[in-house]
Structure formats: C-alpha cells, structure tokens
Amino acid sequence: MRERSCKLTIGAKLVLILLPILAAAAALCIGRIMLSPREVFLAIRGRISGEQLTSGVVELTVMNIRLPRILLALLAGAGLSVSGCAFQSLFANPLATPDTLGVAGGASFGAALGILMGAGLIGIQACSFAFGIAAVLLTWLGGSGRGRGLSSVVLSGIMIGSLFSALVSLVKFVADDESQLPAITYWLMGSLQTAGYKNLLFGAPPIIIGIVVLLLLRWRLNLLPLSEEEARSSGANIKALRAVAVVCATAMTASCVSMCGQVGWVGLLIPHMCRMKFGSNHVLLLPAAVSLGAAFLVLVDTVARSASAAEIPISILTAIIGAPFFIVLMRRSGGWRL
Fold first, then answer.
1. What is the dihedral of CA 15, 20, 21, 26, to 10 degrees?
2. For residue 3, what pLDDT is reported?
3. Of 1, 78, 82, 94, which is least surrounded by CB within 10 A?
C-alpha cells in the first residue's frame, strides 16, 4: 500500500466532520412519520426554549424517539469501528474484530442473565457491561504470561467467547418461552429500539473516553504491530500502550453491546474501508473510523426502523450489507495489509 501524507486536506476534514452530522439530520426526518427539516428544527428549538413551536406528536417523535437512538447509533458506530482499528493493529490481524477477546460474548451473557432475572433496562445494561469486562479479564489471565505471545491471547479469547456462547444457550434453554426467550433472542440480534437518555447517560462515558484516549495516542498506535524488540528500540513502552489499547477498546465494545446488543461487521468493515482510502497511519485512520463508523450505523438503523412495518434487527442488515461489500473491497484491494 502506498504511503500517504499524515495530514488530511481541508476538504477531507470537512467531509469527515459533516458526514455523521448530515446522516443524523437526515435520520431525524426519515421514518414511518416523515418530517420536514423545518419541523425537526422547530421541535428541537421548542424543547430547548420550553415553547410549543410545533405539534406535540412531532416533538415527541423527534426528541423522545428518534434523537436518543440516533445519538446511540453515532456513539456505537464510532466506538465499534475504533475498537476494530485498535484490535486489528494490536494483533496485526486484518480479521480481528471488537469481539476478538470475547467481550461481546460476555456482554451478551450478562444481558441474557439480566433479562432472565427480570432486571430493568439499566440493570440489564449494567449486567451486560460487567460480564463483558469480566470476559476480557478471563481471556487475558488465560492467554497472557511469560513466554506467551499475543496469539495465545487470541486463542484464549476464542475459548472464552465459546464458553459464554454456551452459557447464553443455557440461559435461553431455561428461560420462559412466552416472555423471556423472545426478549433474549431479539436482544441478541441487535437493536437500537431501547435507546433512551437514561441508558445513554450510563453507557456513553466509556465510549467517549475510550475514543478520546485512543485519538490522543493515535501517533503511538502505529507501534502496536511491532515486535517487543522493535518497539523497545523506538523508546516506547509497548506493554503499557497495548494495555491502554485493550482497556479502551474493551470498554467501548462492552458499552456498545450492553446498549444495543450484538452489532456485527461495523468493527471489521469500516476499518478496512478507511485503510483503503487513508492508509494504515492511525493519525488519519482513527478520525476517519470515527466519522464513517458513526455515519454508517446511523444510516443502517434508519433503514432498519423505516423499511418495513416491523423493525428489522440491525445485525441482519449489517451482515447483508457488510458481507458482499467486504468481498468486493477484498477483491479490489488484492488482499489486506496492515
């Protein structure tokens, strides 16, 4: 892959800034109830000023239904794509995803367990987040150690992910067929339908903090694929850098899964799209991943809630869009390079 300048042009910066904003603005207008940009603007302005500038139905639709899930889509899309970038560089593996260390499997088990116990939305979210973090700790304890490389951590992550997948199946087996099992099954397919300001208040900080930390370290993240000796010669503390990358990516993934279930392909597809356009330099790669990941998930969620009378699980759409597109990208690129 040819080298690219480590600076973005003004035009590229504008595109990356405006893309998620325009996607969010369009999503506020599109749905089963189509709204004009003026109605959306008046609804937001009215909520801020406390005046009734448009009908109550329009204000409720914009502020209580669409805006929370659009904010969640922006955060989850950005968080998953940045996590994918971090894990692919950390393991020098173009197929690494945010679930490489088993975090999505652990978070899914936590959510299923929360539903089984009858916890509320915040309780399910907290349980999911806690088990996602626990899964990564188990992965790291099982795969790390003296004389072991990162490949051992990846193998441990696969085993832990399989373990929690089996535990999810166990929870589904003992769940009530009439109420709990459908809720668990639908949640596992991924949806932003439960988005609200309360669960955003709980789940947004890990994603925002993780993105900010990795953006601040993006110059150093280019060292992640290097060996211990190569990194040591550069004067960097590669172990600390890897630990920070794992903690940030894990927290972002666990928080995303806890709020909207398993959403596949975002952490795999978006980083590769960004690499094709901007190269593997994280100075350019991470900002591009934030922008494209956020815009992509907003657009997919808009289709999921608008294409039919019944909302389509978002993981179905990301797979339908992502798999063929990924194959096309792979054929055009002639293989993946990190």
1. 110
2. 46
3. 1
pLDDT in tens, 63-85: 999 999 999 999 999 999 999 99
Place of tokens 């109605």: 39
Conformational region of residue 7, where left means phi above 0, alpha means psi within -120 to 50, and beta covers everything else: beta
Q: Residue 161 corresponds to which tokens in the numbers above?
A: 């992910």
Q: Using one digit for the tens of pLDDT, what is the confidence trace for 147-183?
A: 566 778 888 888 999 999 999 999 999 999 888 999 8
pTM of the model: 0.89
The type of residue at 212 is V
Residue reference for tokens 């978070």: 107
What number of CA atoms fall less than 13 Å from residue 283's CA on the CB side? 9
